[in-house]
Amino acid sequence: MLNVLFLCTHNAARSILSEAMLNHLDAQSARPGRFRAYSAGSSPRGQQPHPLALEVLRQAGVSTEGLHSKGWEVFSGPDAPTMDLIITVCDNAAGETCPLWPGHPATAHWGYPDPSEGHAPETQKREAFRQTLHAISQRLQLLMSLPSEKLQKTLLQDAARSLSSH
Fold first, then answer.
1. Which letter, b or e, does each residue of 100-128 get, where b requires 16 or more Cβ atoms within 10 Å of its Cβ?
2. What is the pLDDT of residues 98-150, one digit of tens each?
3. What are φ and ψ of residue 13, in 5° steps?
């Protein structure tokens, strides 16, 4: 099983969408159990997942059970699951100094605009969340379609980074 950690500053929207969608896609795949997704933020500040993130996930038929915002230190300790791949999904998190991760996982940056940013009406924000979830889903499907040999630790970073241009 490949453990994937999605990072964003507040762990309220893009990283939550990514965690839930990868776990959903894996469970629905022809070969379930290949991936296990997690998410965290550099400064979640006690936030919870954005209500629109949870809404669009539910509307897409994706479980939101157990989703909560948490700091990335949860995944840097000795009792944490060892990550194979860490993907930043916002530009702020990509530029921050991350902890030293046990096992030296592969890293990639898949930037998405923040669907919660700005003062747009709720209908526009809801659509931004839907579009973000769709973009994340497409990229995750590409990741999941990689042949097993591309998911080996020595090739994983290059394979994941190549998907950032999709």
1. ebeeebbbbbbebebbbeeeeeeeebbeb
2. 666 777 899 999 999 999 888 889 999 999 999 999 999 999 999 999 988 88
3. -135, -85
Q: Are 23 and 143 in contact (CB under 8 A)?
A: no
Contact 107, 91 (CB under 8 A): no
- pTM equals 0.91
Q: Which of 103, 97, 166 is nearest to 135 (CA)?
A: 166
- In the block, which residue shows the tokens 């990283």? 15
CB-CB contact of 110 with 157 (8 Å): no
Residues making up the chain, counted from first to last: 166
Write out the CATH class of domain 2-153.
Answer: alpha beta
